[in-house]
Every structure is written in C-alpha cells, then in structure tokens.
Design brief:
single chain; 188 residues; alpha/beta; Rossmann fold; five-stranded parallel sheet; 8 helices; 14% strand; binds adenosine-5'-triphosphate; binds magnesium ion
C-alpha cells in the first residue's frame, strides 16, 4: 500500500549548527550563513557567551543579539532557530551542553579549532566556514569603530544598525568602556 511507504519516503531534514558571540552580528556572519543556506534545510544558530552583556567585549544581551540575527535573516530562504548558549567553562562537557539546548543537528560549521575538535570528538561531521574580509568584518573592529566614532554601519546588515540604535548600543558601549573610580563592571 502506498500509505505504508509514506514515512520511509519522507525527506530527511538536513539541519546544521553554527555558533558565534555576535557582538554584534556582522556582514561576515551574514555571508557565512548565506553560503550555508545553499547546503542545508535548517540552521541552528547558537549565541555563545549568552549570559554576558554590558561589557566592552560583550555589550549586547542575548535578546538583543536574537533581534539582530532574526531580523537580518528574514529574507534568507532558510529556517533558523536562534538559541542562547551560556558558557559552562568545561570544554569536555560543552557539546552535551549545546545538545541540551538545541534541536538535533547532524553537522557543524566552524573554523574555530576548539569547536571543531569538540564536535569531531563527539562524532559530528564538521565543515569549515571561510573568513570574509576579516580585517573589517570583525566584532572587535566594529566595537572599536563604535567607540572611535568611525563608520561601523557599513560593516553590519541594516537590521543590526536599527537594533543598535533602538537600544542605544553605542552610548552603552561608551559608558561601560569608561575608566573611572567606580568599577563599571559589576563584581560577582
Ligand atoms: P569578536 O571580534 O568579538 O570575537 P568575531 O568577528 O570574531 O567577533 P564572533 O561573534 O566571535 O565574531 O563569531 C565567531 C564566529 O564567526 C566564528 O565561527 C568565526 O569564524 C565567524 N566569523 C567572524 N568573522 C567572520 C568573517 N569576517 N567571515 C566569516 N566568518 C566570520
Ligand atoms: Mg571572535
């Protein structure tokens, strides 16, 4: 009976994983994800160091980074899950930690040697993601330009400019980067 074969004929969904801190999400990340979208049906995007915000290296909250990513990928023909992943500081347990927070996936895209090693050891298929215009498409460079009052807007998707403006991100970055008598980073 044709009906009996229905399940076995169902196409297997090709779902992959990609992680970054996205402080902020920039055109390099967008280019990588556009390329990945040609190969996969669905992409799980992990927001690394999700617990961090309001620091010079990590100015944006996980929620703000979700807005940046979701809005920037709206026009892409790719189903995405954006999942915050907080740090656990236990490399040997990190893949299990990721798995506990994400939909299942079969392969991971990265060019980070540690991420690659950890996924390989957990028997995932790891695929290399190339770097694009790294001197400019870099979170560090974008935050530097924000602080220096230089043009950073051209290095990120328009949706990211809107989110940064909405949350007054440059003003926040400036304030948490100030040196003063009172420590601007909370001790905990
Ligand atoms: P930061 O300088 O704050 O570390 P970043 O630009 O390195 O920011 P991350 O948020 O750390 O970006 O994200 C890391 C992921 O993004 C890695 O997989 C890295 O390879 C990828 N990535 C970063 N910049 C680029 C780029 N220009 N082209 C392609 N991939 C990039
Ligand atoms: Mg980085």
């Amino acid at each position: 009976m044709a009906g009996n074969n229905h399940k076995s004929k169902k196409k297997q969904i090709n779902r992959a994983f990609y992680i970054g801190r996205f402080q902020p999400f920039h055109n390099g990340h967008l280019k990588v994800i556009s390329e990945i979208s040609k190969d996969v049906d669905e992409l799980v995007i992990g927001i690394g160091s999700a617990q961090l915000s309001h620091t010079p290296e990590n100015p944006f909250t996980a929620g703000e980074r979700i807005m940046m990513i979701s809005r920037s990928l709206e026009k892409l023909d790719l189903y995405t899950y954006v999942i915050p992943i907080s740090d656990i500081y236990r490399n040997a347990l990190w893949v299990a930690h990721v798995e506990s927070m994400t939909p299942p996936f079969s392969h991971a895209y990265t060019n980070n040697p540690l991420v690659s090693r950890l996924f390989s050891e957990a028997s995932y298929d790891v695929r290399y993601s190339p770097m694009y215009n790294r001197s400019a498409f870099s979170g560090t460079e974008i935050r530097r330009r924000m602080l220096a009052g230089e043009n950073w807007q051209q290095l990120v998707p328009p949706a990211v400019v809107n989110v940064v403006e909405e949350v007054r991100g440059v003003e926040r970055l400036n304030q948490v980067s100030m040196k003063g008598d009172i420590e601007s980073v909370l001790e905990y």
